């Protein structure tokens, strides 16, 4: 549920109406206080944002709203309900999560260079985030072909003028824009092909981990260039149909980015 939906539910319980906004600031303050209490008690952020938490949040706000000096406390029901919700945490339910890929592209136009600095505002080098580097359409291997420190990429072999470089950042993002790092990782599975026969409008990629019914991000690169879905191509299941047919020997790279839990990551064979 959105913050506004929770706010309106709490206002309805406290005041019998959602009308009026002059108390919204204080109500939001109490809502955030109850949410922090729940999270610190072990309730996952996903559960805190779900409909099942609305009641306990409203009751918790009610407890805080009616406090007396020196006597602020949650009711016994609120504390018991928080314990129940903490036990219901389920990493497999990721409906409110989205994998997003942010892309930075450049062509070096001066003399050969060993290092570049990419600009992706959403990138936080202190966090566990996925960076992929493509040089002339080929995925580079970290630590072997390049190293990264902050937003600076240093190549093992200098790149000549007009080398095409693409950097992609993949992050796990809540649908409300917040990043959720709770025991989640993003794994990118890749499929690479070069069409060797006549021109074609469609390709079918083979990534066993891909589930078209789930909330997963597919990125398609054609000769090193990131294609735009619904403009350059459409996708139906594992079949990609291009707006403009691709000639023979066109290099096509497909990435599927999935959200996995720590346990899934331990058990997965990523290839």
Helix content: 10-25%
Ranges with pLDDT <50 over ≥5 residues? Answer: 91-95, 176-184
Order of helices and strands: HHHHHEEEEEEEEEEEEEEH
Cα-based radius of gyration, to the nearest Å: 24 Å
Give me the number of helical elements: 6
Number of DSSP strands?
14
Molecular shape: elongated
- Indicate the mean pLDDT: 78
**Arrangement of strands in the largest sheet:** 1-7-3-4
**In terms of structural class, how would the helical and strand content be classed?**
alpha+beta
Range of strand content: 25-35%
Distance between the termini: 36 Å
Counted up, domains total 2
Multimeric state: single chain
Strand count, sense and barrel status of the largest sheet are: 4 strands, antiparallel
Structure notes:
This protein is α+β, with helices and mostly antiparallel strands and 271 residues long. It has 2 domains: 3-87; 97-267, no CATH class. 24% of the residues lie in helices and 35% in strands. It has 6 helices and 14 strands. It has helices at 3-15, 24-40, 45-48, 54-65, 76-87, 262-267, and strands at 97-107, 113-117, 130-135, 138-139, 146-149, 152-159, 164-174, 184-194, 200-204, 217-222, 225-226, 233-236, 239-246, 251-261. The strands form 4 sheets. It has a 4-stranded antiparallel beta sheet with strand order 1-7-3-4, with no helix packed on it. A 4-stranded antiparallel beta sheet has the order 8-14-10-11. The protein has a 3-stranded antiparallel beta sheet with strand order 2-6-5, with no helix packed on it. The longest helix is centred in the N-terminal third of the chain and has 17 residues, at 24-40. The chain is elongated, with a radius of gyration of 24 Å. It starts with a helix and ends with a helix. The relative contact order is 0.13. The model is unreliable at 91-95 and 176-184 (pLDDT under 50).
